[in-house]
Specification:
DNA-binding; DNA-binding transcription factor activity; 65% helix; mainly alpha; 2 domains; TransReg_Diox_bact_type; 143 residues
Length: 143
């Protein structure tokens, strides 16, 4: 059996196809984690998302990389944001926001809905504080 050039040397493979395969595995693992957190069977998610059971199984195992449309259907079935799946699949960049939003998004113990609620609350506090600071500077007497 002949070794491919990407696998020569230290044994690490970094071809573009390997990266695509890694993304497929990552999104599949993420979907499985979200499905398990929601306590939904593969068959149930298949029905909710309108995706065949074998195809969904292949996605979770990293054999297939789903399209944006399929990700949207899966997100609907899981009741999570399609954006979360797009980010995980590498179709969108992770929104920036600093250490607190990043920590919330990275927490694997929270559901996507819980993450979104926390992010909404956090942003509402930040807006409130900005508004308070603005009104404080507007009402201070000039010297």
């Amino acid at each position: 059996m002949k070794e491919t050039p990407a696998a020569e040397g230290n044994g690490a493979s970094t071809t573009p196809m390997d990266k695509v395969a890694d993304i497929g595995r990552d999104i599949g693992e993420y979907i499985r984690l979200q499905r398990n957190n929601a306590k939904i069977s593969l068959r149930q998610l298949s029905k909710l998302a309108g995706v065949s059971n074998p195809y969904l199984s292949q996605i979770e195992r990293g054999v297939r990389k789903p399209s944006a449309e399929i990700l949207q259907q899966i997100a609907k079935g899981l009741r999570i944001s399609a954006e979360a799946l797009y980010v995980q699949a590498g179709l969108l960049d992770l929104p920036s926001g600093g250490p607190v939003p990043d920590a919330i998004r990275a927490d694997t113990e929270l559901s996507e809905r819980q993450k979104q609620v926390l992010l909404d609350v956090y942003e509402s506090f930040r807006r409130e504080n900005r508004a308070a600071r603005t009104s404080d500077t507007d009402t201070q007497p000039e010297e």
